[in-house]
Amino acid sequence: MAVLGITVALLVWVATLLLISIWKHIHSSWKLPPGPFPLPIIGNLLQLEPKNIPKSFTKLAERYGPVFTVYLGNRRIVVTHGYKAVREVLLQYKNEFSGRGDIAAFHAHKDRGIIFNNGPTWKDTRRFSLTTLRDYGMGKQGNEQRIQKEAHFLLEELRKTQGQPFDPTFLIGGGPCNVIADILFCKHFDYSDKTCLRLMNMFNENFYLLSTPWLQVYNYYSQYMKYLPGSHRRVMKNVSEIKQYALEQVKEHHASLDPNCPRNFTDCLLIEMEKEKQSSEPGYTLDDIAVTVADLFFAGTETTSTTLRYGLLILMKYPEIEEKLHEEIDRVIGPSRIPAVKDRLEMPYMDAVVHEIQRFINLVPSNLPHETTRDTMFRGYVIPKGTIVIPTLDSLLYDDQEFPDPETFKPEHFLNENGKFKYSDYFKAFSAGKRVCVGEGLARMELFLFLSAILQHFNLKSLVDPKDIDLTPTTVGFGSIPPYYKLCVIPRSR
Ligand code: HEM
């Protein structure tokens, strides 16, 4: 009897929760964009393919239009799809949609630093970081020289492979890693340095794991999943170890700081912290600076490194494109001078190839999640404050009107009929607006200079027939992750 009573009570309880949840949903969503009906607790998980959430968004856009709502866990998410809607979110409603949506695996960085900051310190931290990065990017010891200097080390490492097969992940990654390490700490790692390899391994592992179905689901259901074992624990452990490394660097810099003579980005933030201590405003702590530095370190390394690695694989699949690049490099730069930024103007083919690599690989397909900073009237809908907003980037990069045959790698997508570089406003691989990538200028310079330097000195050699190279990413989620491969680089004889 007692068992029956408990069962009935439980059933009534569950039914009541269900009704409350449905009622809450109907009540709160009557002015929201359309979307599939969510189930209690799981929301619209059944309508999404955790193996490829960006692709599920594209399918939902076909059904519900360019602005639609989905629910994951207890999160309300508005997705925008296609040039007009994404542009509107990023550029016309730039303040309203400039918050940062929660990323559960990065709670250690939440509301600090730049990337995962949805708090009051984001604006100032971002502004100050941008100004400082700009200062370090210009002048005689600016980014161009920094990258050129690093290109020499990278070429030397490539020579050491002596035409034998190697995994490019950490060898190529050493280039971007050292460029940002120089800006942040004036550090140059040897390509076999254990600490550097460990850091790059963690950046790489996190980017991969964050793109797997488990972490995609974890991001929205962390309240239920956080006690479970699984790869989310690995990501969080890496996040914490990277932050610990950054904190050690920040403390070392603090101990030897000369306020009149900043040596690098970290010193500049420390000087700012000391200045703020003298005012009554609560300012940065060493821990906040460590988060900012860690943000820049992994964002500055992993994105550019993955783009270069994916780019080399693409060029091996299309030897005729590699051949055209060799021809352009030989004509404009010649065999010995290191490539320079000014060469880009005379190298429309390389410029187009770099853009096409970024378009085709679609590195961050669903962008980073944004969040509404206030109740916002958008296209006749009312989107409440605190709603996650996803301005998808793949919907622009794979637009079949702007880039006919978007699934095919074609540098011609960025060339006009005279072979000149053709700008496209749909190229938003770095996003746009208030949250636009802080490292866009640096990344573009690195991609052009590193790729030109590599192809100036080497022919790429695939271990399999180019026709058999499969460019499909191994997993798509937070990022599009290139397949694992090895290659040989053969010194060019001219
Ligand atoms: C190929 C290279 C890169 C790509 C494709 C890329 C792409 C992106 C994207 C899509 C975002 C999200 C923008 C948004 O929320 O609307 C972003 C943000 C960011 N990126 Fe990059 N990025 C690259 C390289 C870099 C580099 C080299 C750095 C550092 C120097 C960097 C630092 C950042 C930071 C700090 C943010 C956060 C901005 C904010 O929340 O205010 N990125 N990036």
UniProtKB/TrEMBL annotation:
UniProtKB keywords: Endoplasmic reticulum, Fatty acid metabolism, Heme, Iron, Lipid metabolism, Membrane, Metal-binding, Microsome, Mitochondrion, Mitochondrion inner membrane, Monooxygenase, NADP, Oxidoreductase
Domain of life, source organism: Eukaryota
Record pathway: Lipid metabolism; fatty acid metabolism
Subunit structure: Interacts with chaperones HSP70 and HSP90; this interaction is required for initial targeting to mitochondria.
Main function: A cytochrome P450 monooxygenase involved in the metabolism of fatty acids. Mechanistically, uses molecular oxygen inserting one oxygen atom into a substrate, and reducing the second into a water molecule, with two electrons provided by NADPH via cytochrome P450 reductase (NADPH--hemoprotein reductase). Catalyzes the hydroxylation of carbon-hydrogen bonds. Hydroxylates fatty acids specifically at the omega-1 position displaying the highest catalytic activity for saturated fatty acids. May be involved in the oxidative metabolism of xenobiotics.
Record GO biological process: epoxygenase P450 pathway; xenobiotic metabolic process
Matches recorded under InterPro entries: Cyt_P450 (IPR001128), Cyt_P450_CS (IPR017972), Cyt_P450_E_grp-I (IPR002401), Cyt_P450_E_grp-I_CYP2E-like (IPR008070), Cyt_P450_sf (IPR036396), Cytochrome_P450_fam2 (IPR050182)
Regulation affecting activity: The omega-1 hydroxylase activity is stimulated by cytochrome b5.
Reactions listed under catalytic activity: an organic molecule + reduced [NADPH--hemoprotein reductase] + O2 = an alcohol + oxidized [NADPH--hemoprotein reductase] + H2O + H(+); (5Z,8Z,11Z,14Z,17Z)-eicosapentaenoate + reduced [NADPH--hemoprotein reductase] + O2 = 19-hydroxy-(5Z,8Z,11Z,14Z,17Z)-eicosapentaenoate + oxidized [NADPH--hemoprotein reductase] + H2O + H(+); (4Z,7Z,10Z,13Z,16Z,19Z)-docosahexaenoate + reduced [NADPH--hemoprotein reductase] + O2 = 21-hydroxy-(4Z,7Z,10Z,13Z,16Z,19Z)-docosahexaenoate + oxidized [NADPH--hemoprotein reductase] + H2O + H(+); (5Z,8Z,11Z)-eicosatrienoate + reduced [NADPH--hemoprotein reductase] + O2 = 19-hydroxy-(5Z,8Z,11Z)-eicosatrienoate + oxidized [NADPH--hemoprotein reductase] + H2O + H(+)
Location(s), subcellular: Endoplasmic reticulum membrane; Microsome membrane; Mitochondrion inner membrane
Protein name from the UniProt record: Cytochrome P450 2E1
Membrane topology: Peripheral membrane protein
Cofactor(s) the protein needs: heme
GO molecular function ontology, one term from the record: heme binding
EC number, UniProt record: 1.14.13.n7, 1.14.14.1
Residues given in the record as heme binding sites: C437
Family per record: Belongs to the cytochrome P450 family.
Entry GO CC: endoplasmic reticulum membrane; mitochondrial inner membrane
Major subcellular site: endoplasmic reticulum
PANTHER family: CYTOCHROME P450 2E1, CYTOCHROME P450 508A4-RELATED
